[in-house]
Design goal:
4 copies of one chain form a homotetramer. In chain A, the strands form 5 sheets. In chain A, strands 3, 4, 6, 7, 8, 9 and 12 form a 7-stranded antiparallel β-sheet that branches. Chain A has a 6-stranded antiparallel β-sheet with strand order 2-19-16-21-14-13. Chain A has a 3-stranded antiparallel β-sheet with strand order 18-17-20, with no helix packed on it. Chain A folds into 2 domains: 41 residues, no CATH class; 311 residues, Sandwich (Jelly Rolls), CATH 2.60.120.10. In chain A, β17 and β18 form a beta hairpin. The two termini of chain A are 19 Å apart. By secondary structure, chain A is α+β, with helices and mostly antiparallel strands. The first copy, chain A, is 19% helix and 32% strand. At the C-D interface, α1, β1, α2, α3 and α4 of C face α1, β1, α2, α3 and α4 of D.
Chain lengths: 371, 371, 371, 371
Amino acid sequence: MDDKFSDEVLGRARVKNNEKLASFYDDLKNYSTGALWEVANDIEPWEPAAPSVPYHWSYEVTRKHVVQSIDLVTPEEAARRVVYFSNPGALDKSACVGWLYSGIQGMKPGERAPAHAHSSSALRFIIEGKGAYTVVDHHKVPLGGNDFVITPNGVWHDHGIAEDGEISIWQDGLDIPLAKAMDASFYSLHPEGYQPIDFPIGDLPTIYGAPGLLPVNHNWDKPYSPMFKYPWDKTYEALKGLEQMTDGCEFDGIIMRYTNPINGGHVMSTMGAHMQLLRGGEHTKAHRHTGSIVYHVAKGQGYSVIGGKKFEWKEHDVFVVPSWVWHEHCNTNSKDDACLFSFNDLPTIEKMNFYREEAYTENGGHQEIVA
Amino acid sequence: MDDKFSDEVLGRARVKNNEKLASFYDDLKNYSTGALWEVANDIEPWEPAAPSVPYHWSYEVTRKHVVQSIDLVTPEEAARRVVYFSNPGALDKSACVGWLYSGIQGMKPGERAPAHAHSSSALRFIIEGKGAYTVVDHHKVPLGGNDFVITPNGVWHDHGIAEDGEISIWQDGLDIPLAKAMDASFYSLHPEGYQPIDFPIGDLPTIYGAPGLLPVNHNWDKPYSPMFKYPWDKTYEALKGLEQMTDGCEFDGIIMRYTNPINGGHVMSTMGAHMQLLRGGEHTKAHRHTGSIVYHVAKGQGYSVIGGKKFEWKEHDVFVVPSWVWHEHCNTNSKDDACLFSFNDLPTIEKMNFYREEAYTENGGHQEIVA
Amino acid sequence: MDDKFSDEVLGRARVKNNEKLASFYDDLKNYSTGALWEVANDIEPWEPAAPSVPYHWSYEVTRKHVVQSIDLVTPEEAARRVVYFSNPGALDKSACVGWLYSGIQGMKPGERAPAHAHSSSALRFIIEGKGAYTVVDHHKVPLGGNDFVITPNGVWHDHGIAEDGEISIWQDGLDIPLAKAMDASFYSLHPEGYQPIDFPIGDLPTIYGAPGLLPVNHNWDKPYSPMFKYPWDKTYEALKGLEQMTDGCEFDGIIMRYTNPINGGHVMSTMGAHMQLLRGGEHTKAHRHTGSIVYHVAKGQGYSVIGGKKFEWKEHDVFVVPSWVWHEHCNTNSKDDACLFSFNDLPTIEKMNFYREEAYTENGGHQEIVA
Amino acid sequence: MDDKFSDEVLGRARVKNNEKLASFYDDLKNYSTGALWEVANDIEPWEPAAPSVPYHWSYEVTRKHVVQSIDLVTPEEAARRVVYFSNPGALDKSACVGWLYSGIQGMKPGERAPAHAHSSSALRFIIEGKGAYTVVDHHKVPLGGNDFVITPNGVWHDHGIAEDGEISIWQDGLDIPLAKAMDASFYSLHPEGYQPIDFPIGDLPTIYGAPGLLPVNHNWDKPYSPMFKYPWDKTYEALKGLEQMTDGCEFDGIIMRYTNPINGGHVMSTMGAHMQLLRGGEHTKAHRHTGSIVYHVAKGQGYSVIGGKKFEWKEHDVFVVPSWVWHEHCNTNSKDDACLFSFNDLPTIEKMNFYREEAYTENGGHQEIVA
């Protein structure tokens, strides 16, 4: 414990126990009350100490498990065949980090999951396969590698693989733990099992995905992005363009935020997402901020130092940075760029006015690796 | 369990266990992963089932304990002498209901608590005493009975009682559990112990508390209300005026929201507050909604039926309604009105797009009392 | 012409005419075109030079004319019996200053004007009388001295005097010239002649006029203030409170803006209003800004220096400050305060990003009086 | 005059003159006042009757004049060599339509106009040439055919043609008449003549022109779009995509609005712009709305019926639709699409709450051609 964080100071609770107090505490318990000073230092810490820990999951291992699961259970039994990431510091919440859930889902050609809707916001990052699609609010969205797709809070959605497709695998990200913790989690199954498709295939990403242009007679009044899919080719192209025009960010290299083109805000109410490019050999400086981040390696290999611990990563690995933990990234390939997709709970953190950020100033901006 | 909420349907997880699966689950654990279908129905319930329970705390009892605490511990030891409400369903969070903390604080004449700041938003509802004041961001605010006072997220604040005052008691409301749960809780002590007072006493409620008028050269760019104090006399007068002009709300009688006059929004980023008046003999209809509410009886007596259970209340009692629990209120005095102050986490719920509301339609809108 | 505003510099148009050019200009005219350099310096001046001039109208004179008009024409013939202010610099627009229209209206007991609606926003400042009322969107609003009342863009409204009332007189302010200039002026007569009154008398100012409180079940989604009337007693009380708590503004003394309590914005889309108090003997410093202002002396006497010219004023006189003209105010009564009501086109100016402001720095902040 | 618009009804001014009144009017004039009923019906018409008239300018003719002007005057004399469009109904304002100015500008290789800034917002639509560029706020933007470029209110800008370029011609659109009419027109010349270029060439359209993506560390807090240039190839591609995915609009075919990607709003505070595509042989239905529109034929040929009059157009012709005038468009080429660029004052109209729209319902939605 840092000296500056001692609780033995005026202004913190430092009551010594005694018999009278013990009996007072017992009495309070009978009335479902307590003495604030007994819990104050614990419930109001000097700074955040997230229970979630920094962690890394190898795609090689998880992929093997997902493929196994396809043989072990049917979609009719399991609804969704997903191997989810269970942060060792937050096992009780089935969370990947903080209040974010994530897992890897697999489907076989010809399968289609029943349509459902829930209070949680959901997103997908596509890894591999052929013929995969998602249907969101009656719009069919074909999925390709490294595409980013959203299925917002309260919207009917289902996924499937064409009969002539291939086993398809993607990462799911949802704020299931948050919706449950906020006592606001609702779940519904579509009365007809599957949604009718009412629009041309892929319409919304085309209609809303033009640079600096919006359709005039296609009004959108929902609190999430109408794009639904952010295709990889245009995203990568945007990063390469940004690389040429700016120096980027010392903590994150060349980084862009996926936005709602209607208002420039986050793609959904409770979760945001970024794609960043680390230039050949780039090693960013460390910083920390409130909010939890789940990373997915979209391209390349390297390592990140998170809370003083080094995590090596390669394509499609997943790793997490809990709130207020120092982190920095390194692309170990000196010749080619590496790309990290990430999603987060920053929209929630920002709306609550809980966002804070700090640069690591010692040691040239780089953490000492302790593990 | 309602039939409509059976998990034995297509679209919910209903995998029967077997040996192969058990061994698969064991294997997953080794890699800090799990099978979604093992936890899905639990983490994505059909509708919210808040762990917090409806509860009522008698002021008579709590007051006795607060007065006792004044003799048992000094402010130098305890920082704040508060008896807090500990919801039997959420003991681990030190929460009153949901992610809201609340307690009753007492101070003696001549005492002044050291100035501090924290990530949680805080509010006070004043119960009794004389000479009490709070200092918020260098503005001194004198406190009177039934006044509503805010000390927003991140702002220096301290409280005290004048030398010639009397023992003073108020209710505190904070979202301490939320700030901690979001891994965003910071706590600081003022470097000088107490804040200098830089403004005329009571300036802000005067400057910003005029009806339909704002000062031109007193710019406010902070994400919370500049009024800081909402005095009881003007609030009660507003309710009486509203009573004459409208029929009110079938669920809440004559009800007003405390606002930020700069933008008409909630008083703070994460907590809102209301004052409502139940006309003589009024019995409202039941409804339920997401979001947690803490009530404080500002005037009169009556009862509320919450989740089918009847809770009688009188002045300065506190009771709580968890998220998505049916509730209705009754003023048992047929001749005089009753007033309920309440605070809530609705700003957070609304920003997340988690708000839902439902009217109780059976039995003429009134719950059957089961306890 | 100031030297810094010479047009004989590179970057301004300074083409000398010649025969070839003259013939070119003639040719262009045949095709409804012209050469920009022929008009550029005129249409893009170095800084605004409003055609409207500073002006003052004595209430004594105008009142006499209004009373005369009551005998000269009937409301059935004239619709509204108003003597309007015609700025000598803007006679063609029937404007008081800039694009703002204003006049003094009189009505006799028992009269009621037919209900109408128009694209212009309208406001009233009440001068004298008894039993006057306005009906705005089916809400009846009784009028008292120095009350400020709005009848927004597109809303049905009519005015009348009770049978047992007295001759009543008020100032009207509208942006009729603006609505016409923007080719957006519509005018309608109510199909039934008069609006039915559907609400308790005076409901809206009561429902929405509480400090820091808004009704929960009385939703307002219109682009103007729901208060409709801002009563004088509470406005004056607010100014006296502000006087105690702040030093005020060096250009305007103690000044407040009438607001829409729903969002803190201007009362209407295209016109705003202020009330300001000049302390006994106070002489403000001069400044200038874009936007036009119409002043009405609500209380006291004094003078203003506008564009170097001195205008003395007393109760209910009206005077105007055109855009970008220096102005300062002086309360000549050393013992009592003076109050100036004013309305303006600042909402329009601000939304267009046309607002600019400048302090007069020479001569201790006071203009030399040239007339 | 339509019967429904007769002024001989209760509620309109219909005072017959007489001797007493004439003398009253004379008296009022002496005090710079007037009787409202003398002007009321004129200043508050039943509906807009814009002084501007529908008009069409052939590029062939204007181009010839622009080329002539290049020989007749130097940039040093004229500052900008522009042939501007002078609406026959608004000659006094040097306006193209309503409060919008427009003209065709030409420059020779090696020329560079001195940098200036003004209160008016400006935009360009590029017609022909090679090596043209604009410098806006220290960012250099190369210009190509059918590119749309903005130089917002208050920003330094200058234009030039590379030494090895060709004569370049573009259309300018500004709201010079509006800024002047609002008494808010300021004009400045850059103290150094030309702006230094501080950024990579073409940086902003690249940085902000990605679909559904915004840079994280390139903050933009200005009230206009950071894209500055909207290139033709991507705009046309967007229209072709929209054509495949929607049926378009019955009044405007396939139409998109140029937006500020930061917030989805208009590109500038006072002027907006659209690009629309008329499918082979498409003839849209007629409607009318408040707000003035300047059209530029970006591709193809056809005609528009405006206020019952037929105007044929081909590439780079300009035509205008005044406020509240019926209009419909027809692409006369049955095999290829036609594209119309247009700019307007709708941001201003919308902010003032002056927007109204009406469909032409008779005759199958098509006007009878009267001229």
